Structures are given as structure tokens and as C-alpha cells.
Amino acid sequence: MTSNKLRKYISRQQPLVHGIKRRTPVLLADSKGARLERELLPDNVIHSNIVFRCKPGASTQDCKNWLQENIRSEIDTYGDIHLYVWAATCNLTTKNKDRSISLTTENNDTVDFIIHQYRQIVNLINEYPSCRVTFLNIPVYSISKYNDYIKLQNPINIIQQDNNLLQQIKILNEKIHDLNLSLRVTSPDFNINLCINPKHTTCRGQHSTTKLFYNFELYQDGIHPRYLLNTVWLHKISLQIRYDCCNILVQHFNNNTKVTCNIHEKQDQSGKVVEQSISVKRCLNQRQQYRINLYNTTCRAEVNGRNHRAFFDELQDICKQMDNNNDYSSINQQIREECAKHQRTFSKEIIKPSITGSQSDNQSTDLSLAKKSNQNTVDTNKQSTDDNCPKCKRKLLSRGVFCIKGNHWIHYV
Length: 413
Description:
The strands form 7 sheets. This protein has a 4-stranded parallel β-sheet. It has a 4-stranded antiparallel β-sheet with strand order 11-12-13-14, covered by helices on one side. Strands 4-5 form a two-stranded antiparallel sheet. The radius of gyration is 26 Å and the shape is globular. It folds into 3 domains: about 240 residues, Rossmann fold (3-Layer(aba) Sandwich); about 60 residues, no CATH class; about 80 residues, no CATH class. A hairpin with a 5-residue loop joins strand 4 and strand 5. Helices cover about 35% and strands about 20% of the residues. The two termini are about 30 Å apart. The chain is built from 12 helices and 18 strands. With about 425 residues, it is an alpha+beta fold.
């Protein structure tokens, strides 16, 4: 990616946090995580909840030893945690006495050692069933660029070392993906923000073969990212934390040992999430069972697929999880108050709205909303002057939702 594309990515508005925080995110990392902490925004809900446990120069073995000594105290302090491990850079390369770095091994022994340390971390987390762990992908970096930055002469075989390093990172990320898949978690892809010109044609008349090029100019010294790339990576990690720690629906499927889920979002021009699509697949063959489409602007949900009826069994368990949340009682009360206010303004037909969370039908109050015959419109003769859309300044006749926080109606597209 170029710097302009990264700026466009940063300019997007971050999606809001939906659901109740189930676990506290803890980032266990080396200097990459320490640099992320510099870009935190004080008014961002996700950023304020991240616990950083970062140490420059930390290896995967250092992370495992720290976790072994402090996991009990972390859980006592923050409750259930979701651990994000982002290390391995200091394993793949070694720092020499003259401050230069070089490749640790020419073969894949270092990759196997890193995965072995990761599996030991999994064993530590498994002792606490309510906690989770995700291993973040390792971004590519350059040995030659780092040595040039500190103005040291590179060895003769530096090009071969860089090529071997890229190959080891590729193999390591593939094994991290398989390990995360067995844990039913996913990691953001950081290398996609470094790729430029991913297609390369070998010769005329032949099909194009994949050949990746990386824009190491986005790094400060060949290893540590500059502000733009650092902010993009923080945004990606924040989105992953939102799914893992705050989304009730996703958490339910992640706790299910038989299925896994993938999420795709659609945003409008201002960056707001207007549609979410959740693909539920079997863990054995990764075959999709059904898909859940959530339309945020119309407050509708659509389930389709060959085994869509299985969602009704899952829905009962999801409702039980919502029943345990006391925070929904305040939302239900706000819904009742707003409906009662509009009942006094205009009333034609009496309907009973469905109440979110633990409120059942026998607890719901008889509330009224106006309905035009055969149309979902509001009677303009009885509509108050306060029901103007603040965006287009017109009276709301149809296709509108009520904003509880702003206490006004607004059109949706």
C-alpha cells in the first residue's frame, strides 16, 4: 500500500462497540506493541480497555515465562481476559554486539521453536476455561534496511538472509493461522498493508504468477512502523478486539466447538457499519451451514442457508445470555418511554412492541404507534414540529428510526 491509501483507511470512522464487554483484552508483545500504545485515542472505548504488557526485545520464551508468573494476578485484576500474543521478531533475528541484526538460523528450526512456545501458552490458557488467546500474524521486515538505518555495513549474503527471512515469516504465519483455527479465533493480516504490485508476469504469453513486493518505506528503520502504518495496525487490532470481546453473537459461536464464523461488514460513505454478514461454518470441513445478515439501518436480521433451521436452537441460547445482562433493563426502559411519548402525540392503532433482552410479553406495556392504512407512514396532520429529520430538515413521513441518545427521528437510506 501507499501512504495515500493508508491515510484513506485511517480517515474512516471506527465502528461503534456493540454488546457488553465479556473479556478484557491483554496485548502481550515486544516493541511493536509498545509503539501501538503511543497511538491510543483517549475517547476510544476499545483503546481505553486494552491492557498493554509490552517489552522491547521480548522473545516468545520471555512472553511465555511472564504469562506463567502473572496469569493468575491478571485474571484476579481484570477478570476473564482475551490474550493477544504478538512476538517472534526477536526469535527470527539476532542482535549482534555491534547493534546490527542477522538471521538466527538458515533452516526452519526457529519457526518450530516459536510454535512450540505458542502451544505452551495455549496450555496455560486452557487452565482457565473462560479465557481465550489469539496469536497475531508476524509482519515482514528487512534485515538490510535496519542495518542501513543504523549506518552499519551489511554482510555479503544480506540478500539471501532477507529472502530466507521472508520465507520463514510466511511459513510461521501459515502455522499461526492453523493454530488460531484450532482455537476458533482469527488474526488480522498486517502484511496486506505492506504489499505493492502483488501480480507479476514471468514472460509473454504465460499466466501471471504471484510475486509479492513490500513497501519497506512505511517502516522507520526496516522493523518498526511509522505513524501511518502503526495507526492502521492499531485500527485492525481494535476491530478484532471488538469482535472477540464485545459481540455477544460472535462470542456465542466462538464458544461452540462444532462451528466457526467469519464476519464481513459493509460501510456507508461516512464509515458507519450499515450491514453485517456472519457466515457460520462447520469446523470439520469448513462448509457453510447458514448465513446471518444483520441490517443495522432497518433493525432486521435475515438467516438463510441449507441448515438455517439450526439457528433457532442457537437463538434460544443467545437469548439466555442476554437475560443475564442487567444492562438491557435500562435500554428496555428507554424504549418504553419513547413509545409512550409518541403514543400521546398520535395514536390510531394499538400494537405491542417487542422488548429487548429479559423483558417478556407479560411484562410489556400496551403502547401505541400510528399507522396509515396499508402504509408504514406517519399522519402528517398530527405530527409535531419536532419530528423533522436533522439531516435533511424535512418532516419524517416514512423510512425513519428514532435515536434514543439524541432524542430525535432521522431518515435512513
